[in-house]
Write a structure and sequence with these properties.
By secondary structure, the chain is of the alpha+beta class. The chain has one domain. The chain has three helices and five strands. The chain has a five-stranded antiparallel β-sheet, with no helix packed on it. It is elongated, with a radius of gyration of 22 Å.
């Protein structure tokens, strides 16, 4: 029962972390809202699927260490429980880091874009809701050093 509770706590913490970390062009960070951004027009020359590696903030490891330490300390007598508690904490930290990294991994796309002035840019971002393809007119939106690519709106004369 204690093992199930420990796993449930760890899974909940990692799921919470995964919800916080994304590089999706459809998600704008709170600090970037209501800020003026620069916009550049371009055309997608090519794109290829990539995997954006998951993060290791240390929270998954810390949560795993706590859960593993608590679970291990309940084993055996006082001397054994201390040793097993340390082993449980180390194993829990390793497992927590691995779970955090795999749960924050994202499917992404690397875009090669030609700007109107002839310059080229390569940008990696998570897959968003738009279906981007080679030849699409796009805008590159830069806010506070972060960049996202989205389809260009139709030109109105």
């Amino acid at each position: 029962m204690q093992r199930l509770a420990s796993r449930l706590i760890l899974a909940t913490m990692v799921a919470t972390l995964a919800a916080c970390a994304t590089s999706s062009p459809d998600v704008v960070q709170r600090g970037d809202a209501q800020r003026m951004s620069t916009v550049q027009d371009g055309t997608i020359l090519s794109l290829r699927p990539v995997t954006i590696d998951g993060s290791q903030s240390g929270l998954g490891g810390a949560a795993g260490a706590v859960v593993g330490g608590v679970a291990g300390s309940g084993v055996g007598g006082s001397r054994e429980s201390a040793i097993v508690g340390v082993i449980g904490a180390v194993a829990g930290a390793a497992i927590g880091n691995a779970v955090e990294r795999s749960s924050t991994k994202e499917e992404g796309v690397e875009l090669l874009i030609q700007l109107r002035n002839g310059d080229r840019r390569a940008i990696v971002q998570a897959k968003g809701n738009e279906n981007l393809q080679a030849g699409d007119a796009v805008v590159i939106v830069t806010t506070g050093g972060k960049v996202r690519v989205t389809k260009a709106p139709p030109v109105v004369n």
